[in-house]
Write a structure and sequence with these properties.
The chain is an all-alpha fold and about 625 residues long. Helix content is about 75%, strand content about 0%. It is globular.
Amino acid sequence: MPAGDQGVAAGAAAGRPARGARALLTVAALAVALAAADTYVVVLALTDMMAGVGVGIESLQRGTPIISGFLLGYIAVLPLIGRVSDLVDRRRILLWCLVVFVIGSAVTAAAVELPVMVGGRFLQGLGGGGLVPATLALVADLWPPGRRGMPLGVVGAVQEMGSVVGPLLGALVLAVAGWREIFWLNVALGLLALVGVAVIRPSAPARPPGVVNGSPTAHRASAMAAHGPTGRRGWLARATAYLLAALATALWTLTLWAPEALTTSIELGVPFVPFDPASASRVATPIGAAAAVATLLLVLVTAPRWLPLLLRADLLGATLVAIALGSLVLTFSTANPEEEVLGPWGVWLLPLGAASTVAFLLRQRLAANPLIPEGVVRRRVWPALVASLLVGAAIVAIVVDVPLLSRLTQGTDETDAALVLVRFLVAVPVGALLGGWLLRRVGPGLVAAPGLAIAAVSIFAMARWERASLDEVVSTTLALVGAGLGVGLAIAPVNDAALADAREDGHGTVSSLVVVARMVGMVVGLALLTSLGLRRFHLEVGTLADPTDTDALLDAAVVQVQTVLTGAGYAAALAAVVALALGVRAISGTRPDGRDAARDVTARAQPSGVAWWKR
């Protein structure tokens, strides 16, 4: 073993992370924070963005895809990205996710049509969502068991900070510029993160590229996916791909930019004339069609490099999961939580999602290499997934119904009502850091369970709020901060326990499943709790002597909020019970199969060209 790798192995044996690990984690965590902030950055800019693509404020419902498109991209491909990150170097996944995020930000910034803007937001979600499981799995690769608590807490904290940073970032940019500059800033920051990930190389690689269970076949397949064919044919394919990529980039830039000097020219403006004379589309033009053809050719030429990898990761199974999760997201994210449970497409999407789920389960049983390999989800991974699901339901109830109560009882607008949540949103990342620090001393169950118990008590206190309760600063602050700290305390322990019991070749898959569980909990939890709240509201209205009494209707609406928060309290309490199964003993450097973690890190520190054939 080279001297440098011996030093890394010695550091691992001493419980230290690989040299350069903290620098890489810092850049990756900042990228996660940027992507998380993008989830909320449109809160203040949504109406301006709609106006920018010709949608008036009177058609607010048409702007919903700007938000749901991002969520769809964020959640639908998480399992596939998690699995792919188990087959290739994590850094490569981070790099490509950042590339997609930057492209999506640029498309959004340049959009003058709603479909183009939604497509850009989808790409942003696609790239941003993939950053989370890849970064969590990177922690498992670069830190030995027992030392992952604080880095996992950092990742959880920066992810939660997005809910605070996003609206603030949007407000700051809008104070001095327009909404497009928000996304151009994303492009600049994303490129900086891209350079950082590309430059920083930890002394011990995240894993020997392509080595899965020490299989030479896996090594060769991954090498082919990473570098493509070799020799003269490979050089020609790469040169063609670079030329097509440059051509597609130039054509799309001209299509979306549509410089006035060209579009108004009699000689040069023909490619920019829409196919439909009545349309003002920039995409449905000859130059837009040329850009699409160049992109299609690029996909076909590069397919031998990435298609075998996706097939190995079970592209069919991932597609079925994407359809199921996408149906779920679109069904509930397009609904108005104050009035309805299902969105307008729910009648069609829910059966489609159910059929896709059944097909995926069959695929899992019958496929030789399924999306979620056998034995990856085991031991403490199960309670981690259940706890994450329940925590998602509790969080979304607070995020939606506390501002709703403010609007009902204080007469605030949406922006001022959202400010009520700042105390909760700030407390969550603080709790995440504290939870990561505590994991060095006690087991994940003894950190997560008390934290979630505190959250449950705090949420039950919120469920008792009356019409004048939000005017009482001290009591509301205690409840909001308690809920935020409690939820935050559970973030690092849930991830730590899941990664500790996951197979070595399944860290990316398990990390993505934890994130998916939480997102599903948020989407489904909001639907179920809102359904209960609306039912209680209608029961209260049914008992009124005068159904037109505004004051009595307001009381009924407050009861609706109380019902939702009560359900969230039960979800947090149940999560606290489940969290006890995460373990009460601190995670040590011994794997679930009894092998020493330092030995695993030492093996990963060997040059990849030697490691796979020795096994």
